Fold each of these.
Amino acid sequence: MNESYQLRVAQLSDVEELRVLISTSAHGLSHGDYSEEQVDGALQGVFGVDTQLITDGTYYVMTKEGAVVACGGWSYRATLFGSDNLNSRDPRKLNPTTEAAKIRAFFVHPDHARQGLGRWLLTHCEDCAQKSGFSKFELGSTLPGKRLYEVCGYISGEPVDHEMENGLILRVIPMYKSI
């Protein structure tokens, strides 16, 4: 990875910049997989900032020249995906010996896509989760994200159609990996 990128733990002061990055990433990298209306609906709850991850210290940002250009994290809590606006969140703490850590909310700015940032962030999150006792990981992948996760050893489950508040459906793919 290019040394001009820097990784750090996300802070609550990053939330507004993360919202902009997530929207830009979702709109810029979802063409051919989701319609603009689906992306707009997903940004109302499925995609977005989960401040619990930031508070837990398990969400990271990659910066270049001070600007946040990628983000992603992992969680020891039961929520699989969704922002603060999604009602189906479950803050229960997972048992690392029997349950899988959740890989969460990966977004890359389109201008920085295909440069290894997602893979680098994913490896960092898996390493951190392993240090906390987890040997299994799961995530709810977007259609464009599926390609990254497959290359990194994740196995796809049966796609799930998530109904959004705007009445549209967003296809999410459960994915799993064991170490």
Note: The CA atoms of residues 119 and 148 lie 7 Å apart.
Amino acid sequence: MRIVIAEDSVLLREGLATLLNAAGHRVVACVGDAEQLLDAVRTHEPDLSIVDVRMPPTHSDEGIKAARTLRRENPDAHILVLSQIVSGREAADLISSGNGGIGYLLKDRVGNVEDFLAALETVAGGGREVIDPHVVRQLLRRRSCIEQLTPRETEVLALMAEGKTNTAIAAELVISDAAVAKHINRVFAKLGLSDNDLVHKRVQAVLTYLRR
């Protein structure tokens, strides 16, 4: 299997390369940022790309953005994302970007070499998605939260998904702007959205609704 590794940690990057080469695979490129990842994949057309979520320059979501770009360019591109943290949002974004051949694992899973290599084979084979169990649990929790919304809160969220402002929603539902704001805050609370999310809460709420 021909593999590209995109990981800004030199220690982990070289460790992965050593592990994969020892397992009989061929690492065709090791890179440390998203731009190099895009160039490497376009040049080498690997069987699989292993991508870190957070890479330079901001160490936020450059890796996941690059992965989505690769899937837009080639929906059949096989990508295994490695993340330090659990993020159901990022997993859902990537899963919806093409046909199978996607994996999303926490980095500590690499320590179980046999399972890690098996996950690589599954993703590279273009089969079902390989998602870390911790991420799956978060996705299920977020989906169940949608079901906890009241009919009015669901109406408000649906209108938000249409791109309507609070004032437009108030006019549509014949309620006050203050009532709309209260409903929206309750939606945020039930979906577990906080100001620490990398994506604006309103956008994240809409994405959660659309992936229902």
Note: The domain at 148-210 is CATH 1.10.10.10 (Arc Repressor Mutant, subunit A).
